[in-house]
Specification:
Radius of gyration: 30 Å
Distance between the termini: 99 Å
Order of helices and strands: HHHHHHHHEHHEEHHEEEHE
Strand order of the largest sheet: 2-3-1-6-7
Shape: elongated
Number of helices: 13
Structural class: alpha+beta
Length: 439
């Protein structure tokens, strides 16, 4: 009795491949194992080696920025613990750099240039730390920017290496595909269909990976490519997506200080120290935006930056109209501004700033959210929370009834009173005074 052969399509993909290739000669089986082994080897090389070195470069960038921050804090605050942290970050940077120096694919001249620049960075900072001043600030900033640029270029160089290895995978797969089709045609159309199907899965993964790599090279760090299957290159693509998130974060940190063309934290400390030393009367007004983080989650960082610029312009306009030429405006990062004015003028400045911000801010919301008066934001736990239209809170610290010996005391009082200011109807709280002013 003749039995009709039926190929077991109910089996899983791996078992169907095995069943099909059992019909082929031992040479075909050997060739298939060799090709898949090669793909796996290259795949592991990219995911375990290149991705690991990309993370090392990412950590080097974080260390460099953090070290520079500790250096500034030590010069300003003269805290020995901060100095210890500065040199610890220096040691960590050098250890991380030793890791990437052993990678043979990287340009040795670039690595030597990074080493020389970092030695120059330490030398300049050592002089400033010893003298406790910012005499080398311009040189330090220039050297740090060059280092950051070189490290970013090093990341892009690793991306190029990854792309070459991806092309190598494609080449090996193409040869494997062609050979498989030739032999499978001689056996049955069934083997051909299995080979084509598997080849398509891999080709789709390569295309997705190439697209993701191009997006990263173009600076589109927020691009996320979804994969609905466990393809051969899925792990690599997930690693690239994780690196893109880190690069986006680092780019945000690096560009944050250039968002507003206003003096920064160093100038603020200098002004406060001078006023304290000369016993001048002043009003320190710390301004920040309520519900700004949730706005960014709803509309994105680009529109959030527009809010920061708008508030900065409001402050500049209000101080120009109601303040004096001696008033000082400072942007200290994120959504925080500081105004230093006189005790007889600060209240008008604060009230007009709140009033103009409240008039302007609804224009930055979509029509539906503006009419509703709030936005809905989903938390990581999946809970949807309503947040009202943004407002600003202002904490005012004056030396009319309080005495200070250094700027840190002023900023600590402002920081501790911030949450209380957010609970007030007009958002303005004068620390050290029992009477609250309302717009």
């Amino acid at each position: 009795m003749n039995k009709k052969f039926i190929f077991p399509f109910h089996l899983g993909i791996s078992k169907r491949i095995l069943a099909g290739y059992l019909l082929v000669l031992a040479l075909i089986i050997f060739y298939a194992i060799y090709a898949m082994s090669t793909l796996k080897s290259i795949n592991n090389s990219i995911t375990q080696t290149n991705s690991r070195f990309l993370i090392v470069i990412d950590k080097m960038l974080e260390n460099l920025i953090t070290q520079e921050s500790y250096g500034r804090r030590y010069i300003i605050l003269k805290n020995p613990e901060t100095l210890t942290l500065f040199w610890e970050k220096s040691s960590e940077f050098e250890k991380l750099f030793d890791h990437i120096k052993g990678l043979p694919d990287l340009d040795k001249r670039t690595l030597e240039h990074i080493a020389l620049l970092y030695e120059e960075f330490k030398k300049l900072y050592s002089e400033d730390l010893k003298n406790i001043n910012f005499s080398n600030e311009e040189k330090i900033t220039k050297t740090q920017r060059e280092l950051i640029e070189l490290l970013k270029n090093l990341s892009f160089e690793l991306y190029d290496i990854q792309n070459k290895k991806i092309l190598e995978i494609s080449h090996v797969k193409s040869k494997f595909h062609t050979a498989s089709i030739i032999f499978c045609i001689l056996i049955t159309l069934l083997v051909v269909s299995i080979a084509i199907r598997n080849s398509k899965n891999i080709s789709d993964s390569i295309e997705q990976l190439n697209t993701a790599a191009k997006k990263l090279l173009d600076g589109e760090f927020e691009y996320i490519q979804n994969i609905n299957q466990k393809a051969e290159l899925g792990e690599i693509l997930n690693s690239l997506n994780e690196v893109s998130k880190r690069l986006r974060k680092l780019e945000s940190i690096y560009l944050e200080d250039s968002l507003m063309q206003l003096p920064g934290i160093r100038s603020l400390y200098d002004i406060l120290k001078r006023k304290i030393k000369n016993n001048e009367s002043f009003a320190f007004c710390a301004i920040d935006i309520d519900n700004f983080k949730q706005f960014n989650s709803r509309y994105g960082y680009e529109r959030g930056d527009e809010i920061i610029r708008a508030l900065g312009q409001i402050i500049v306009d209000v101080v120009s109209e109601t303040g004096t030429k001696d008033d000082f405006i400072c942007y200290i990062g994120a959504d925080d501004f500081v105004i230093i004015s006189s005790p007889d003028r600060y209240m008008n400045i604060c009230e007009f700033t709140v009033e103009k911000f409240n008039q302007l801010i609804p224009n930055f919301y979509d029509d539906e959210d503006r009419q509703r008066g709030y936005i809905n934001v989903k938390t990581q736990a999946g809970q949807v929370i309503a947040y009202p239209i943004m407002t600003i809170s202002i904490v005012v610290v004056t030396n009319q009834h309080l005495r200070f010996s250094n700027p840190v005391q002023i900023m600590e009082i402002a920081r501790d009173a911030r949450e209380f200011a957010k609970t007030l109807p007009n958002g303005i709280y004068v620390a050290g005074e029992s009477e609250l002013h309302n717009v």
